[in-house]
Amino acid sequence: MRLPLLILSAGLVLLTATASAPAQTLTRVTNTTVTGIPNGISISGTKAYVSDFGGGTLQVYSIANPLAPVLLGSCSAIRPRALAAADTMAYILGFGLGQVTTSYLTALYVSNPATPAAGRVVLFGEPPIYIGASRSLVCAASTIGGTVRVFDSLLNQLSSFTASATAVVLNGTALYLNFYGTTTVYDLSNPAAPVRVRVVNGPINVVNGNRACGLYGSLYSYDVSSPLNPVLLGTAPLASGYGLLAMTGTTAYTCESYSGMGSNNLPMKAFAISQASAPVLQATTAASASATAIAASGNYVFLVNQFGSLFQVYALSGTGTGTRSSQQNTMGIYPNPAHAALTMTPPNPAASVEVYDLAGRVCLTARVSAGIPLDISHLLAGMYVVRNGSATQPLVVE
Description:
The protein is mostly beta strands. The protein contains no helices and 34 strands. The protein is 0% helix and 53% strand. The strands form nine sheets. A four-stranded antiparallel sheet has the order 1-28-27-26, with no helix packed on it. Strands 2-3-4-5 form a four-stranded antiparallel sheet, with no helix packed on it. Strands 6-7-8-9 form a four-stranded antiparallel sheet, with no helix packed on it. The relative contact order is 0.16. Residues 1-23 form the signal peptide. InterPro entries: LVIVD, Secre_tail. Residues 333-390 form the Secretion system C-terminal sorting domain.
């Protein structure tokens, strides 16, 4: 199976860790060869939605166990190139090689992931389009045609206006149109009459809660607690101007841009963006050659590679030199890396704690009380995942 990635900038910033605060690590925990040409991925809850251009399908995977994604179902889609998922809907943008003047936007019902089904299809007689989606709205914008269309969740068009974009982001009823590093903010509280609010001198490509990030020569971090008034918190310089970007909690992940052909073993980085300052590099690793799409959930990063036919999962673990994300240690595991024992604060004390190895096997099941050491002396050195209820946490055993 192949998964899609979004193209954005990546950075090359070095940060020295102190002895008292060991650097975090990004570790590859899944490396699967898949069929087709995956070139888009979007995550909603415990589901990953993947567009496969080669097979002409939307694929739905369960990532409840990030170490072992499970294909739940698939359905046909018109030349899928990119997608966005929101709640019980997914939206696929399709256009063919050599047919850049015709694009298709398809709504897909994914409330039953075993049998996803295509709904309305909207045809655009213009170059490839960028899409963004929320629970109630979908926006499509073209780079060259300069037209933005606003739809409801079933792709009934509500309005249109003139503007160009290279990225489309919906934050509730706030719309961010990023055009080569400059973001224009629109108010869609009345989607039939969009209002242009302001221009931000910087890119916005992804939003998670009250934080947003963008890539254009640098990694940009914003406070969007007031969605119509993004406030720049800081930037981190990047080695190249473009690449892939994903965000979860207060961690942003970047991956160097791919060449479009051949193999490039390029670095992936994790940045802490929880502080009201510039992003802080927490971890770096050599990522997949020619990665083409990226998404993140919890402590996991999902990469797809349309050239190498790879689906890869990376885990972020350890403590960094900056302020930690609340999702980076949701179970209060200490120490990590661990040796013979660890203590933790399970978020769901009524549920058992399970430890999985990289093959998805359960190596340990126990009831754990906050602050009481858990014996892990029988575990071999390596990478594991700790699960308590719906919470998961990477664990390194030395």
